[in-house]
Amino acid sequence: MTAIAEPRRRAVARRPRFLLDRTEFMGPMFIAPAVLYVFALVGLPFLLALYYSVSAYSIFDPSYRFVGLKNLYDVFESDIFRHALWNTLMFTIGSQAIGLLLGKIGAMLLMKEFPGRGLARALVILPWAVPISLATLAWKWMFDSLYSVINWTLVAAGLVDVANQPQWLGQQDLAFAAVMTVQAWRLFPFGVIIFLAGYASVPKDVLDAATVDGAGFWRRNYQIIMPIIAPIVVIALIFGTVFTFTDLSVVYLLTMGGPMNSTQVLGSLAFQVGILSGDVAHGAMICLFMFPFLLVAVIVMLRALRRREI
Amino acid sequence: MNAVARRIGLTGSFYSAVVVLVLFAAFPFYWMLITSFKADGDLYNLQSIPYWFNAPPTLEHIEYLLQKTLFLRWVLNTAIIGVCVVAITLVVSLPAGYSLARLPGRGAENLGIGIFLTYLVPSTLLFLPLARIVSWLGLQDSIWSLVVVYPTFTIPFCTWLLMGFFKSIPREIDEAAIVDGCTMPGAFVKTILPLSLPAILTVVIFAFTLTMQEFVYALTFISSSDQKPVTLGVATDLVRGDVYYWGELMAAALITSIPVAIAYNLFLDRFISGITGGAVK
Q1: Which residues of chain A does B24 touch, with a Cβ-Cβ cutoff of 8 Å?
Q2: Cβ–Cβ below 8 Å for B273 and A197
Q3: Nearest CA-CA partner of A141 in B229, B57, B235
Q4: Looking at the whole model, is its pTM more than 0.90?
């Protein structure tokens, strides 16, 4: 009797544990909340955005009436939109190029050992670490129309006449340059850090061997270091590009897209149309113009991540 | 002698370059600092040199900020949002990261990359539909809307960061616990979590600072002053019409920036290896 009963009891006791033991079962259970959260609050909103963009939904007409590609047509007809699209591209390319260049120069400077390097590194990182809305406010104050410290310095140095001070945020070209500068300023520390991390990952003996073999500074730089750190730099570049292409904080806080839409980017335009004017459908359509761009970025990123593993 | 002069010249240009770089990066923060403590008369006097105090420094801006504005309320809101988001992030990301690190095969890896890539989905693409979802949930104009939405970017990032960390813990440790009779969750809680305290601390810091830096969702979802997080409140409420309260604005920006800057500097290296996913060792 006991010989029969005992295995059965053990089997009953083990049954609930059976699933908890199994990696095949528990693994997916462990990851389910993350997947669900992301699906519910990234996936669904994205589908909703897709639907908004082909509907007539606005806060005045919450009927979700399907209008097909009318919004696409409307949006593309608008000069402001085309201007914003162009601005977004220029804003992204310009600030990334400056950021990357400054990042590389910064990393080459900070790579050397020198007294005060730790402090210099900490100060250089500040623009990237501190919340951008607060840092942008400091720039807005530095660009002030009356009390700009930049203008004061230019006047004191005799470069600018008091009566003809540049209105950084009031003239179209200057405003665009200002917005781009602040964005580059915000991003370049990230470049510095990534290049520094990359340089640190290059094996010292490889570099030494190359030097012994007669490779000069540029040859070491472009034929040894750059290929090794390329995947990391690509990842950093994509991060910076995506954040710049889609961001509106700097534009919103510095210029609100003005003067006369000269600094308007897709994000700020979508905010104005979709939230401030309540025309959600057109706002969503403007946002969707970011998507093809993002898709390309993601594909490049995936390749970089894959290459890393080899 | 010539070689010495050349060497001095090189060192000199090296240091000048460093100084220019540091000035470019840090000058706006110096400007925050000096503006915060300058008396208004000094601040708006075009005749005097702006780089230093021409009248004695004053605490009036900071006093005004603390007593006559909602600044402390915004700081409290940010703290509440941050703590809740960190809690949600940990509860969701820890098991997800562990499972991605331990599940065999290409599937888990692809899922990991997939979750990480949602970190790239920008708030500007989602803020319109999320504003709608937030109002369906009855959370519009409340800090809880941000508590619900912010994990959409902290979870992907932190899961990725934790996955990299868990991969560096030898499999034998938790496998031994399972052989000894632990269930998989038991082994995770008893052996892996205690070893992960540094990684958990890193995740806490980054989830918190990421929520502090977000601006678009806060701007979209919240319009009542007393529900704003500090970054939004400072940027929108210390401006009355066309009047900017520059002293108060800069003081608020400075006070809020200092802790974030310190946290970032302390945890920078982990952040980097987190983003590059262990590419840098």
Answers
A1: 102, 185
A2: yes
A3: B235
A4: no
